[in-house]
Specification:
This protein is of the alpha/beta class. 63% of the residues lie in helices and 8% in strands.
Length: 641
């Protein structure tokens, strides 16, 4: 049940008719229980009995019902506030937002760097309801701000993480007098609400290829899918089928198959965009859908790498699978840095801004330049910045075109070359900016979980410098891999002590598990550990002369496990139910080393890979089927403790 509360204490816009009109709009927006509260005390009493999200608005808001529905269903976070670009009126508060988060609230004169004004409506997630009730009881009537503005300002002051919901194409306005209300209602009446919602299904800012070669027509597919009743999850699964079919055709080879595979890959990417557009258009969001979309994107891309690797090998190139293994390793490590840099930026945005911001040094200048370029939407520099980082649209377009025109080998080489250059570019710039920001982001999360440590890492003596130790382990694994490649190429065999020595160097990263991850660059630790584990597994496979496709398969299963962790981090979800059963990166590496020592490398890779895949599938079933069903059978009062 979703409760919506219209706070009638606001004198600025508020008549009984306005309160009833908003109440009816909340019902049409999906609220199952709508109440009109006379004052903050009544609101506090209503909130104290709830265990689901609560919607709150004043009476001076004039908006499309779709605006309220979008606020109620926003997937960006549990607590979300409507933010407008209107000049603040009497009794209203201004806000400053960064990276979609409301980071400061205050009177317009007290917040000179404000980016908008509070829109008079917000949604509060279940975990933040105690803070909302406390804010309602504490908000005084001695200030000039309206009741809903006082409530929101007090809630924010209590440290509640609030995300901003901006209004595009639709109308939302806080009316300060009858004439202002009449003007706003007239503006609402002239907008085609459904047409605007369809246009809003397309991301406001996307990458170059997606913007100009997909989103220009994908909205028609979105509309058709909605009409025939397809849901976002169904579209996601169809896009997976298209990507798998493209991978098969790339593996078959021959010009007709390669061209057909390129077309299917493009259409699969279109559907990959449509599933998100359909979710936004129909407002069918779910934690499962968000998780599935993230996992499917990565799995589809890596299946295509496998098809290209097989196709290149089938065409006579000896190292086709090796290129595919390099591509999946590079892209996964890149994604890990992308994830943690995003978390770093979000955490930096939440921290209080210094009275005199440090704009000096290379990091400060880069930050200012990046902000300026991002604000210059549509400029050449803006599109270059978005394209050079090699986002998913550009990757899929490059693979499709290169495979159709030149074959699988060229497609893989192109992905590796551009991916490496993009990694070097983003890595250098992000390192400089992170040193300038100096935000110890890993101190705000469960470090052991996102490092993916096992039991060994938890019992080793703590050593300082977790990033240096993780990098040492990754470099040791890279050295072992290079040694194995050169030795096997010459027809030789690594000495029996080589893999154990490589494992010991790799385990240097484990000794930093219990150290404080408070350095400005320690956000790179998870990516360094992923690189070390992947490179060590590949080195063990090469040294043991395991089939290249088997090595790829093992790394692919590892990526599923690690993307599961990062997807849950991005969606603010709990750890996988069976995470402890995955043994930790050092436990898995140790088992592979044992397999190499006893001469059963291929068996070790196949057995451990199968085990991890079974654990992953079982964890998915538990997380998304069994545990939710059990929670639905448990009374709410018991769940709240």
């Amino acid at each position: 049940m979703t409760l919506a509360i219209v706070l009638a204490a606001d004198a600025a816009g508020g008549t009984g008719d306005a309160a009833q009109r908003l109440a009816e709009q909340w019902r049409r927006a999906g609220a199952t229980d709508v109440r009109v509260a006379a004052d903050l005390a009544e609101l506090a009493a209503l909130v104290s009995t709830q265990n689901a999200a609560v919607l709150v608005s004043g009476t001076d808001l004039v908006a499309h019902t779709a605006v309220l529905r979008h606020l109620a269903t926003s997937p960006v976070g549990p607590t979300v506030a409507l933010v407008l670009t209107d000049p603040p009126g009497v009794g209203q508060v201004a806000v400053r937002e960064e990276r979609g988060q409301v980071v400061a609230v205050g009177a317009p004169g007290e917040l000179p760097d404000a980016t908008g004004v509070f829109g008079g409506a917000f949604r509060v997630g279940p975990d933040d309801l105690p803070a909302l009730a406390a804010a309602a009881r504490a908000a005084t009537t001695t200030t000039t701000a309206s009741a809903v503005d006082r409530l929101f300002a007090d809630l924010t002051a209590r440290g509640t993480l609030t995300f901003a919901h901006r209004v595009r194409l639709l109308v939302a306005h806080r009316a300060t007098d009858p004439a202002d209300r009449a003007t706003a209602e007239a503006a609402v009446a002239v907008v085609d609400e459904d047409r605007a919602e369809l246009r809003l299904s397309v991301k406001e800012r996307d990458d170059f290829f997606t913007t100009f070669f997909v989103s220009t027509w994908s909205v028609y597919v979105t509309k058709a899918a909605a009409r025939i009743g397809l849901g976002p999850t169904a579209v996601t699964m169809i896009s997976v089928v298209f990507a798998v079919a493209a991978a098969v055709l790339f593996g078959v080879g021959g010009r007709p198959a390669l061209v057909a595979g390129a077309v299917l890959l493009y259409l699969g990417f279109v559907l990959d965009c449509v599933d998100g557009q359909l979710a936004r258009y129909t407002r069918h969001f779910s934690a499962w859908g968000g998780w599935l979309d993230t996992m499917a994107d990565r799995a589809k891309e890596y299946v295509v790498y496998a098809g290209l690797g097989y196709g290149a090998t089938h065409a006579g190139f000896r190292y086709g699978w090796a290129l595919a293994i390099a591509a999946i390793t590079l892209q996964t490590v890149r994604h890990m840095t992308d994830t943690w840099y995003g978390v770093l930026h979000d955490e930096a945005a939440r921290r209080p801004r210094p009275a005199t911001p440090d704009t000096g040094g290379i990091g400060g200048k880069l930050n200012a330049a990046s902000t300026k370029v991002q604000a210059d939407t549509g400029s050449v520099s803006y599109w270059l910045k978005r394209t050079v980082v090699f986002p998913i649209g550009e990757r899929w377009a490059l693979m499709a075109l290169a495979a159709a025109l030149f074959g699988p080998l060229v497609a893989l080489v192109a992905v590796l070359v551009w991916g490496t250059l993009a990694f070097a570019y983003t890595g250098a710039l992000r390192t400089l900016r992170a040193r300038w920001m100096r935000v110890p982001v890993l101190t705000t999360v469960d470090t052991g979980l996102y490092r993916d440590d096992g039991r060994l890492a938890r019992i080793l003596p703590a050593a300082r410098g977790p990033l240096a130790l993780a990098m040492l382990g990754a470099l040791g694994a890279a050295g072992l891999l290079l040694w194995a490649l050169l030795t096997v190429h010459d027809g030789g065999q690594l000495p029996g002590w080589a893999v154990p020595l490589g494992l010991l160097v790799l385990l240097a990263g484990a000794s930093g598990a219990r150290a404080a991850h408070d350095g400005p660059l320690d956000w790179l630790v998870p990516a360094a550990l992923r690189a070390g584990e992947f490179l060590f597994a590949i080195a063990v496979g090469v040294a043991g002369r395991a089939p290249a496709w088997l090595i790829f398969g093992y790394v692919f299963v590892l990526t599923l496990h690690h993307y599961d962790l990062t997807a849950r981090l991005e969606k603010r979800q709990e750890a996988p139910p069976l995470h402890a059963a995955t043994l930790g990166w050092e436990g898995r590496s140790g088992l592979l080393a044992v397999g190499s020592i006893v001469g059963i490398t291929s068996i070790a890779l196949a057995t451990l890979g199968t085990y991890l895949l079974v654990v992953f599938v079982a964890s998915v079933v538990l997380a998304w089927v069994v545990l939710p069903a059990r929670a639905r059978r448990t009374p709410a009062a018991v769940r709240r403790g």
